[in-house]
Structure formats: structure tokens, C-alpha cells
């Protein structure tokens, strides 16, 4: 599987900016008990993000992840949040910033394509794990902003880095129900980025910059919309209506299955 590698400096700068933006937002919140997403309050979501940042720092140092099964992450995060008594948003913001500072110091000396042991013991490139942190701050920053009724948008440049950076881990999150019996090759054109071919065959999914198979469906995607649809923050129908997701080709109807190929990491 050959995939594009996102730029290190740009990714670290984006993760820094998104982290600082997230912690600033936390410190501005008046009601930490307001529901952020699902059954988590803003304070509980902040605790979760702190747990994720701490886990990232530890796995970069070779200490592994507290998540033993990458397909059961939600259960692990729920347990860790419940075990964490801290609900003061300023304290949680401090915790996130401290973990990020540690991680950034390690990343400065680490090879960008070097493998690290991620959640569930999966080996992923360092840049992929870092893109996950960028995505964590971006998506959950949007969750908190919506809960606090603060206007916030997901920028295209940061979304691009997250989308392409996370691609190496996607085959570990295949939706078996969706791919059962599906044979297709997609050409994914994320606007402003690379073209990637996504091939579904015999119950498996591969991603690559090249393919020798005929393309069944071509998809042009706005990077922010692509990310938000993938993480169930907006409807694919809304994105289609706005022209943020466009499909064509020999079998354009296959685009409807594309958004369901992977479960959200």
C-alpha cells in the first residue's frame, strides 16, 4: 500500500494551532456540564481529549496504548473518563497542553515515517498517529463549540492533513457489512490534495496512489466535508446537496456505499 506522506512541519504547526484553539475554547466555557456529544458533557469530553493526548505522548515513547482492542475504543475511553475525577476545564486544558508539549518534543527528534505501536497494538507511521491528534482537536473542538453555541469552522488545510494522514489506519476499520459482496474501485479526489484509489475486493479494502484496475466511481470531496461525514458530524446528503461531495463514472451509485466502507477510528 503506497500512500502520500503529509508534510511534517505543516502537520505539527496545524496540531499546535488546533490544540491551542481547543484549550482556549475550554477556558472560555461557562457551563462545563452542557452536553457536548453523546452522553458526554463538555467537561467529560475535555477529560477524554486529555486521555487521548496522554496516550499519544506515551505511545510515542514506546509505552504502548491503554486501548487494547482498536475496535473497542469507545468502551476504554468511557472507562478512563469515568475514572478521572477532574472536571475543571482550566485544569483539563493545562493537562492537554502539557501532554502536547511532551509529544512535540519527542516528535522533533522522531522519524516521520517510523512506526509506532498505536491503539490495539497496531503499527502505524508516526505521521498517522499525529494526524489522529490533529483530528482529535479539530473534531472535538467543533463538538465543544457547537455545545457552547460558538461559531467554528473546520479549515480546509487542516482537514487535508488529517484526511491523508489517517489513511494508513483505515484498513483496520473496515465495515464488514458494507464490503460484503462489494467489488469496486474508487478514485478519491480530495480537493487541494492527492488522488487516492480505494479498492474493495474479496472483503478487503486497499488504498494506493496508483491502480491497474478500471475505476468504477470517481468522487470529488471537499476535505472538511469529507472529514465531517466520515466522523458522523454531518450528513452525506447535506454535503452532496452543497456540492461538497460529487460522484461520477461508470457506476456512480457506488458512491453511496463509500461513506460506509470504514467505521470511524
Cα gyration radius (Å): 18 Å
**Helix percentage range:** 40-55%
Dominant shape: globular
Termini separation: 19 Å
- Low-confidence regions: none
What name goes with the CATH superfamily of the largest domain? Answer: dinb family like domain
| Structural class category | alpha+beta
CATH fold group of the largest domain: Four Helix Bundle (Hemerythrin (Met), subunit A)
Mean pLDDT: 96
Examine the secondary-structure arrangement and name the CATH architecture of the largest domain: Up-down Bundle
CATH C-level class of the largest domain: Mainly Alpha
Total domain modules: 2
Could you state the order of secondary-structure elements as H and E?
HEEHHHEEHHHEEEEHHEH
How many helical elements?
10
Q: What's the β-strand tally? A: 9
Main sheet? 5 strands, mixed
Strand order of the largest sheet: 7-6-5-8-9
As a percent range, the share of strand residues is 5-15%
Please provide a written account of the structure.
With 265 residues, this protein is α+β, with helices and mostly antiparallel strands. The chain folds into two domains: 8-154, Up-down Bundle (Four Helix Bundle (Hemerythrin (Met), subunit A)), CATH 1.20.120; 174-258, SCP2 sterol-binding domain (Nonspecific Lipid-transfer Protein, Chain A, 2-Layer Sandwich), CATH 3.30.1050. It is 47% helix and 15% strand. The protein has ten helices and nine strands. It has helices at 8-28, 42-60, 73-83, 89-107, 126-147, 156-165, 176-179, 223-230, 236-241, 255-258, and strands spanning 35-37, 40-41, 115-117, 123-125, 184-190, 195-201, 204-208, 217-221, 245-248. The strands form three sheets. A five-stranded mixed beta sheet has the order 7-6-5-8-9. Strands 1-2 form a two-stranded antiparallel ribbon.
